[in-house]
Write a structure and sequence with these properties.
It comes from Fibrella aestuarina BUZ 2. The protein is an alpha+beta fold. It starts with a helix and ends with a strand. Helix content is about 45%, strand content about 35%. The chain has two domains: about 60 residues, no CATH class; about 140 residues, Nuclear Transport Factor 2, Chain: A, CATH 3.10.450. It is built from five helices and six strands; from the N terminus they run αββααααββββ.
Length: about 200
Amino acid sequence: MKELLQLEKDFQRGRWLLMAAFGFSFVVALTAVGLAFKYSNEFSKRIYLVNRGEAIQVTCGSVTDNRPAELRHHVGRFHELFFTVSPDPKSIDENIRRAMFLCDESAKRLYNNLSEQNFYRDMVQGNVTQRVQIDSVVADLRHYPYRAITYARLVQERATAIVHRSLVTETNLVDVNRSDNSPNGLLMRDFHILSSRVTQEYNK
């Protein structure tokens, strides 16, 4: 009888040991699979470029990782093209043409309004140059479409005087396919000027 009881205890102990070993093996297997997936995913982000026989490792990431910087660059580039004016009609036309790829018809309406006010004609005839200095682009990517407010300064230089203006603009942005004309894959919409005023003016 004692032998039977001892045999049953040994059997139960063996069964528990077997279950514990199986559970431990299962945990080890899951851990191994998880680590393998993690390292495989990290390795897949590594790209090796060969430059003059030397391998250079680069790491790729999500498209959205650098979106804030791309948005600021896109908006800043539009302002540079649209608001930089030289007394050369061909240069003005080329800058406006390139700026129109970055924004919707709201930029075209603003350009038409300035043209109707003879802004560009006066700049050319007066031999006036205008350059823009971007102070900051405040972007909100928490909601879609994105929103950006730009704080900048315009410097208009004439033969006899220099005028400084503060410029504040606002726009929404949407995602589009990347192209040579829009490398950041963004399009500005509803662009408008919130404020434009003279802050300083002095004679040369």
